Amino acid sequence: GRGVSETTIPNAEEVDADLFRKIRLDDGEEVDAYEASRIIEQLSQAEVDDVVSEGAGFRVLLRVPGGTTAHLLRMPSAKDVIEYRRGFARILDLPFNRQELTVNLAAAGALYQKLVQAAEGYAGAAPIIHQAVAVKAAIDAVPPGSGDWRAEGVVGLYVRAGARSKTFRLQRRISRRLVTRVLGERSLAQARRAAMREWAKLKPVAPEGKVTLETAWARFLEERELAPKTEALYRYNLAQYLAHWRHRTLEELGADRAGVRNLYHRLSRHHGRVIAS
């Protein structure tokens, strides 16, 4: 309808399938384009664990399949940031209220090569996806002594950047009352996990007769005959990406259109369109 845009990635599955064929080492069973796309998404996952100021730059810690890696990057200049943002993504408006998004990973790779001083945890060069995530983390890093910031990943998670340390807190409104839990000094990933544990204690019980996302998810799995791998993937996705929403009611989620939109865009940015969808 009017005022609504749709962002699409043309031929994404075919591109992933072509990449999968190039990097595959065995001659196992045939994999279709959609399975190849899912495998590429899993391999390319990289989550920012923490960003620590170090000298005149940042140490970016990434959680990746198989462990944790570290990237020591110089602080980007204003010119670096502007050129990166100008070249990284392009959005074209198409007929019928559609948009085409083109992401240029080469722009992130070029800036990474300019800023990188060392990369730890790799047998060879860091994958371009990891380079892009590390560069964005360095650009978005919270400057020391800059005060309060909203942290990505968990609703209501905030970080206070002091001159020498960063402290986190969870702040949520429950029954119209603002509740705060201080989480203290820790890494971003640790703060996210702690915030979800605290929210599990604070969240109100679903009203009688209303269904939570976790209950609806369980019913969905029970009512369908799914292959074991498919069912395991559904359960993994709920635990990995929607854990902080498990106890929200479907009615509440239906009313929170902005929150759902923000979650989709965050998952797309950090884990890819297939995972987000």
Describe this structure in words.
It is a single chain. With 277 residues, this protein is α+β, with helices and mostly antiparallel strands. The chain has helices spanning 12-23, 33-43, 78-88, 105-115, 128-139, 188-202, 213-223, 228-241, 250-255, 257-271, 273-276, and strands at 6-8, 47-54, 57-64, 67-74, 89-94, 98-103, 116-120, 147-150, 157-161, 166-174, 177-185. The strands form 3 sheets. It has a 4-stranded antiparallel beta sheet. A hairpin with a 2-residue loop joins β10 and β11 (177-185). The two termini are 21 Å apart.
What is the topological layout?
Elements: E1 6-8, H1 12-23, H2 33-43, E2 47-54, E3 57-64, E4 67-74, H3 78-88, E5 89-94, E6 98-103, H4 105-115, E7 116-120, H5 128-139, E8 147-150, E9 157-161, E10 166-174, E11 177-185, H6 188-202, H7 213-223, H8 228-241, H9 250-255, H10 257-271, H11 273-276
Parallel strand pairs: 1-6
Antiparallel strand pairs: 2-3, 3-4, 4-7, 5-6, 8-9, 9-10, 10-11
Helix pairs in contact: 1-2, 3-4, 4-5
Count of runs of 4 or more consecutive helical residues = 11
Largest sheet: 4 strands, antiparallel
Q: Could you give the order of strands across the largest sheet?
A: 2-3-4-7
What is the helix/strand order? EHHEEEHEEHEHEEEEHHHHHH
Spatial extent as radius of gyration: 21 Å
